[in-house]
Design a protein that fits this description.
By secondary structure, this protein is of the alpha/beta class. Helices cover 42% and strands 19% of the residues. It folds into three domains: 249 residues, Aldehyde Dehydrogenase, Chain A, domain 1 (3-Layer(aba) Sandwich); 193 residues, Aldehyde Dehydrogenase, Chain A, domain 2 (3-Layer(aba) Sandwich); 254 residues, Aldehyde Dehydrogenase, Chain A, domain 1 (3-Layer(aba) Sandwich). It has a ten-stranded mixed β-sheet, with helices on both faces. Helix 3 crosses helix 9, helix 5 crosses helix 6 and helix 22 crosses helix 23. The radius of gyration is 28 Å and the shape is globular. The relative contact order is 0.09.
Length: 785
């Protein structure tokens, strides 16, 4: 007689199909879909087919949106936006609650439709995606209700263009639409061409509840349709998709003033330490990589296992792999469904073949794949070199790599050995070890002893080439709001070195250089690499010389800033002490700085110095006050939202208020732990170079602040292009702002091109500067049952 263990080992699952008759009848009744614009479905135009990836059979015909369709949708959204924004938050909340309830009423229908269109297992659509969709609408209804209290003085951005991918079609829709509507914006959304059907079903729900026309508009189409939306008259673009397309969008929106959120690719580490619950970690791999066909941008596709347990872990992983069921996504017993379309399937095959050709060994599930549809057997690679293509490139399929490490430091080094920084998963029973590693991994989301957990109450977004901005929670609401726009103030001087008479002609040679206020790099004064200086002119006379910095000076300053990494590791209290000391030392030399500004013809010099001193004290006070939060999420986790410094930032300062403008940008950046390469006011750099002695006598570590004088836009271009600069602030003209945003696409650094303002007033300081000097890392720590 067989034992229970033997029965469990040999027992086969019977088929457990989810009925699709209701959804198929709905699709048949509609046949061909138009766009949803201004509260109604348009007459279908040019169409394309939406295909069931599990069978290859067409599901419906969908309209291919043109630039004219996008323009019509944007006009509708523009007309609706003022009225929607004027509604009390309570009224907007009621609409969001109504959407949430109607989604819940149709949960099964939407789950089946999602699985038919996308190919993911019905268990994922039914148990994870659609409930989370409803959760987003409920959660953001709450934000609409509390908007005035929680975000005082902030206003909606306007009309938002949103482009979503095919891996979470309905969830990504909810992720983007809900904060936009809660904040008072209106929306034009383009779903992925492979998976448009749940977005169109959602449009029917909008019509069903009578949502005011124009508030939500949905235009279907491909990349051309998306490009038309990016180019359209919208106030914000929110994009989730590939890094390559994200770069194109960053370049296309440069200088337009459009607010931009990019959630891009990932190559996330899945770190398993020797003391981890190995069986739980194996199930984590199943959830992260195989259960969803690896079609998740934050999937832990780089498995890093401590060497002492690597053999055991691989054995258990292989045993689990052998038990996975690949097949009909509508079968509730299916573990791995279909790849979204034939193009993506071929890309996976090509990358896997190339990885094998480069020496990696593929361990793959055995068994017969379905004869029709887009299926790929799940697996993982071993013997993977760091330079192997499967180590570097996002496969976006059910395939992972497995490599080993010996020490926690090596684990961190391997985890960060990627251009991405979207997510990470860390497995250890030692919570101290797990949180220590979580703090060092460069990723926007870190799960401890868990993976791929999402919630409307927690922010989501990446570091580095995984994009910038956050979606979800309070952080996500900020992306759809704008503060009171400060009154634009014309700059005191044009800030161009070739514009006579300010700041004057360049001079060359040993004698002029000896009289020059030198660069400040790595805590020491440096002569410019060029050997050139330029005359600083005030009231028609030369008041000094400033070094004419070049690309090499910027390179040296960035290197010095990276060497000062200890500043970012210091506590807020320790940074505050240094900034208080700096403020005191600046105060002791108040008269001297006022006289320097007076000689340069700066209006009200005493007021500027006094305000600069107060600003230094303000950011010293904020250094240990601007802290994180614990988000209230549905699951049993303490979800920590920790603001982290970018690292090395570039700062291009305005000509107006040369001392105060410089400190108003540099101080919040360093208060948060960043190191700065700053370009002072070209027309009056001496106000900044006079700070050298203040920095030196205030215990500010060398390299925390580096000053390179010269032509602002030329130096800013070099900083924007520099891949070792993580963020860039620019205050200058519109041409310079366009240049900075366009040139930042190399490493997709976060940029802030801010208008000149009254630096003496409230617009010159505040928590918005601190928020923009940080990026949020959300760390999910198990808590309770």
């Amino acid at each position: 007689m067989p034992t229970v263990t033997e029965i469990l080992e040999t027992m086969e699952y019977g088929p457990a199909p989810e009925a699709s008759g209701e959804v198929m009848a709905w699709l048949k009744a509609r046949g061909t879909f138009g766009h949803y614009i201004d509260g109604v479905f348009t007459k279908p135009g040019k169409t394309f087919e939406s295909i069931n990836p599990a069978t290859g059979a067409p599901l419906a015909k969908v309209s291919h949106g043109s630039a004219a369709d996008i323009a019509t949708a944007v006009r509708s959204a523009r007309a609706a936006q003022p009225g929607w924004a004027k509604l009390p938050g309570h009224e907007r909340a009621k609409w969001l609650y109504a959407l949430a309830r109607h989604i819940q009423k149709r949960e099964r229908f939407l789950a089946v439709l999602e699985t038919l269109d996308n190919g993911k297992p019905i268990r994922e659509s039914r148990d994870i995606d659609v409930p989370l969709v409803a959760r987003h609408f409920y959660h953001h209804a709450g934000w609409a209700e509390m908007l005035e209290d929680e975000f005082p003085g902030m206003k909606p951005v306007g009309v938002c263009g949103q482009i979503i991918p095919w891996n979470f079609p309905l969830l990504m829709l909810a992720w983007k639409i809900t904060p936009a509507l809660a904040a008072g914006n209106t929306v034009v959304l383009k779903p992925a061409e492979q998976t448009p059907l749940t977005a169109l079903a959602f449009a029917e729900i909008c019509a069903e509840i009578g949502l005011p026309k124009g508030v939500i508009n949905i235009v279907t189409g491909d990349g051309e349709t998306g490009a038309a939306l990016v180019a359209a008259d919208v106030d914000k673009i929110a994009f989730t998709g590939s890094t390559e397309v994200g770069r194109a969008i960053r370049k296309a929106t440069a200088g337009t003033g459009k607010k931009l959120t990019l959630e891009l690719g990932g190559k996330s580490p899945f770190v398993v330490f020797a003391d981890a619950d190995l069986d739980a970690a194996v199930e984590g791999v199943v959830d992260a990589i195989w259960f969803n066909q690896g079609q998740v941008c934050c999937a832990g596709s780089r498995i890093l296992v401590q060497e002492s347990v690597a053999a055991t872990f691989q054995k258990r992983l292989s045993a689990r792999l052998a038990k996975l069921r690949v097949g009909d996504p509508l079968d509730k017993s299916t573990d791995v469904g279909a790849i979204v379309d034939a193009t993506q399937l071929q890309r996976i095959r090509d990358l896997v073949a190339e990885g094998q050709a480069q020496g990696a060994v593929l361990h793959q599930a055995e068994g017969q794949l379905p004869s029709a549809g887009c299926f790929f057997a799940p697996g993982f690679f071993t013997n993977v070199a760091p330079a192997n293509i499967v180590s570097e490139v996002e496969i976006f399929g059910p395939v992972a790599t497995l490599t080993t490490f010996r020490t926690p430091d090596e684990a961190v080094e391997l985890a960060n050995n990627t251009r991405y920084g979207l997510a990470a998963s860390i497995w250890s029973e030692n919570i101290n070890l797990a949180l220590d590693v979580a703090s060092k991994v460069k990723a926007g989301v870190v799960w401890v002893n868990s993976t791929n957990i999402f919630d409307a109450g927690a922010g989501f977004g990446g570091y580095r080439e995984s994009g910038f901005g956050r979606e979800g929670g309070r952080e996500g609401m900020h992306e759809y709001l704008t503060g009171p726009v400060p009154r634009a103030k014309p700059e005191a001087e044009p800030g161009r070195l070739d514009a006579a008479p300010v700041p004057g002609a360049a001079s060359k040679g040993p004698a002029p250089i000896d009289r020059t206020a030198k660069m400040y790099i790595g805590g020491a004064q440096k002569r410019p690499d060029s050997g050139y200086s330029y005359a600083v002119i005030a009231k028609g006379r030369e008041i000094g010389l400033a070094g004419l910095g070049n690309r090499k000076d910027i390179r040296n300053a960035v290197e010095a800033a990276h060497k000062a990494g200890g500043w970012g590791k210091a506590t807020g209290h320790n940074r505050a002490q240094v900034l208080y000391y700096l403020a005191e030392n600046l105060s002791a030399r108040e008269a001297e700085f006022a006289q320097r500004l007076k000689s340069a013809g700066v209006p009200k010099p005493a007021d500027e110095v006094a305000t600069a001193i107060r600003r230094a004290f303000y950011y010293a006070a904020q250094a240990d006050k601007f802290d994180g939060a614990v988000h209230s999420t549905k699951s049993a986790h303490v979800t920590l939202a920790m603001p982290e410094a970018f690292g090395v930032m570039g700062v291009a300062c305005p000509d107006d208020a040369p001392l105060l403008g410089f400190l108003s940008l540099v101080l919040p950046a360093i208060a948060m732990g960043n190191r700065v390469v700053a370009i002072p006011a070209p027309s009056m750099p001496l106000a900044a170079t006079d700070l050298y002695q203040v920095f030196d006598t205030s215990d500010l570590p060398g390299g925390v602040v580096n000053i390179v004088t010269g032509a602002r836009d030329e130096l800013a271009k070099t900083l924007a292009q520099h891949d070792d600069v993580a963020a860039m602030w620019y205050c200058g003209g519109p041409d310079g702002a366009r240049m900075v945003e366009a040139e930042s696409t190399g490493n997709l650094k976060a940029t802030w091109c801010l208008a000149n303002r009254d630096w003496h007033g409230a617009a010159g300081q505040g928590r918005d500067f601190l928020r923009r000097a940080t990026q949020i890392k959300n760390i999910w720590v198990p808590y309770g049952e």
